[in-house]
Design a protein that fits this description.
With 530 residues, this protein is of the alpha/beta class. It has 6 helices and 41 strands. The protein is 21% helix and 38% strand. The strands form 8 sheets. The chain has a 21-stranded mixed β-sheet that branches. Strands 8-12-18-17 form a 4-stranded antiparallel β-sheet, with no helix packed on it. The protein has a 4-stranded mixed β-sheet with strand order 11-19-20-16, with no helix packed on it. Strand 17 (228-230) and strand 18 form a beta hairpin.
Length: 530
């Protein structure tokens, strides 16, 4: 219990009795005492009072305040409301010895008169008055109701939205080109996605009766394309056809797959917005172009195949020096011979012979044979191979650690930023000069004023352009950070004459090595073990 004080009224004088705290309570506060005496308009000797208050921490003290008899004071309290209007505290001050005490109902009525409309703790107040009062202590007598915050809406997808699937390596060392999980097939009637609506939550209320709204929750809606049915309550998407499903920029799409036996004279060239599946072969001089995936279960000859996403060739490709593969995603083939192949993702094969290969991430030649012989193989991050080069001295070059397309774009952006900044500097010089003239009282003609306004608008537009360029530069620089660890890993043998390029440095292998890794270290290509 905290220390407290009471006024003493005797004939010809008024004093104060100070009680020490018990059971670890706080001692009497000089602030409480002086505030109370000021409220009651009682004069006192500061020195005597301060000394008595200090000593009252250890024992009861009596101090003379005035040499006159004042009226007895009733029990009273100090009212405090929190800054957010969510709590009300009262601090009781004891009545004079022999003075009248307050009642619980009196305090409750006072709170209502003070505008407390909500959250008065009646039971706690009544309990407080039913026991020995805690004086000089803040007591909670009203508590507002906190709002119950809701939950954002979200969408559950019933298919794999990760489009970075890779081929599975079997126990015998061969690659399973059919278990790729690249294409997410769906059947008619399949549930594709479900919307879990938002929970708006519940409003709260402060002690003054003002409503407190819960935080705003994010709503969501199902976005979808053709061949999809949405439920009456707009919460469930269902496929209307057999095909494949994918998530593109938060929208669900289901496409029918174009299936043909062979690409030859019976079909002519193929151009399709979705996926293309060829059960047989793609013959020389024919073209297959698809926005999605291209799957070939047979072989590809000297043909041209372009896919917006992945290219999968189950039995490989002999390009005859003119075959071309171009994929916006990954390329997976049993073998690649005399092929020009380019992928924004990875390229995986069991063998690569006399081909030009460009991969945006990595090249993996980890199959049962696992060799790269002849030609040029490039990847941004890494090349993994069992056998590199040839004992017969085939001209073989492998490169990692650079992406020429990104480098060109970065140079373009840097040049644009320099150009725009130079123009901005020129414009700002004119604007500063104009501002100085206006400060000196020079008046501009309407034509001059219009010209200055045009320059100011141009300055703003160019600044926004530069900001956009810098964001793209930062993004591209972030995409190139992984190139620092670029490497070439040989899990078998590398033969002399093979040219190794990592970034801007290169070397030619002089002697046969086994189970090694080529990395860039201190400005040179180094060979290390694995």
């Amino acid at each position: 219990m905290n220390g407290y004080f009471r006024l003493i009224h005797e004939e010809g004088k008024t004093g104060m009795k100070l009680f020490p705290p018990v059971n670890g309570g706080a001692p009497v506060s000089i602030g409480d005492v002086t505030e109370y005496l000021a409220m009651k308009d009682i004069v006192y000797d500061k020195g005597l009072l301060y000394k008595a208050v200090g000593a009252s921490a250890e024992k009861e003290m009596v101090v003379l305040l005035e040499k006159r008899t004042t009226l007895k004071e009733r029990e009273c309290y100090k009212f405090t409301i929190s800054p957010d209007n969510m709590q009300v505290y009262v601090r009781f001050y004891a009545p004079s010895i022999g003075g009248e005490e307050m009642t619980a109902e009196e305090l409750i009525n006072d709170l209502e008169i003070r505008g407390i409309r909500h959250g008065i703790l009646r039971k706690e107040i009544e309990l407080c008055f039913a026991r020995t009062r805690d004086y000089c202590k803040d007591i909670l007598v009203a508590q507002g109701t906190e709002p119950v915050h809701g939950k954002d809406a979200y969408i559950e997808y019933y298919f794999n939205t990760d489009r970075k699937a890779k081929p599975t390596l079997k126990e015998d060392g061969s690659v399973d080109f059919f278990q790729l999980n690249v294409v997410q097939h769906c059947d008619k009637g399949d549930v594709l996605a479900k919307l879990i609506p938002e929970d708006p939550g519940e409003s709260g209320m402060n002690v003054l009766g003002a409503r407190i709204r819960p935080r705003e929750v994010r709503k969501a809606a199902l976005k979808y394309g053709n061949n999809i049915e949405i439920s009456e309550d707009n919460t469930i998407l269902t496929s209307m056809v057999n095909g494949h499903v994918e998530l593109v920029e938060d929208s669900v799409f289901v496409s029918d797959v174009l299936i043909v036996e062979n690409v030859d004279n019976s079909t002519g060239n193929i151009e399709y917005d979705g996926n293309v599946q060829v059960n047989g072969n793609v013959c020389t001089n024919f073209r297959v172009k698809a926005q999605g995936n291209v799957e070939v279960n047979g072989v590809v000859e000297g043909a041209y195949i372009e896919a917006g996403e992945n290219i999968i060739i189950a039995r490989g490709m002999n390009g005859m020096g003119k075959g071309t593969l171009k994929a916006g995603g990954n390329i997976v083939a049993k073998f690649l011979q005399s092929v020009n192949a380019q992928a924004k993702g990875y390229i995986a094969s069991e063998s690569i012979l006399h081909s030009t290969i460009m991969a945006g991430t990595e090249v993996n030649v980890d199959g049962k044979k696992g060799f790269i012989t002849g030609g040029r193989v490039c990847a941004v991050n890494s090349i993994n191979v069992k056998t590199l080069g040839s004992a017969m001295g085939a001209d073989t070059t492998v490169e990692v650690g650079s992406d020429p397309t990104l480098a060109v774009r970065l140079q373009q952006l840097i040049a644009l930023v320099e150009k725009e900044n130079a123009e901005i500097a020129s414009i700002q010089q004119i604007l500063r000069s104009t501002k100085q003239k206006l400060a000196k009282g020079v008046k501009l003609t309407p034509e001059q004023l219009k010209y200055v306004q045009t320059l100011a608008a141009s300055n703003q537009k160019k600044a926004e352009l530069v900001s956009g360029y810098m964001e793209e530069i930062e993004l591209l620089q972030g995409q190139t950070k992984g190139k620092e660890g670029a490497c070439i890993i040989v899990r078998g043998s590398v033969y002399p004459g093979t040219r190794i390029c990592i970034g801007d440095v290169s070397m030619t292998v002089q002697k046969e090595s086994h189970y090694c890794r080529f990395v860039k270290s201190r400005g040179d290509v180094k060979l290390t073990g694995i």
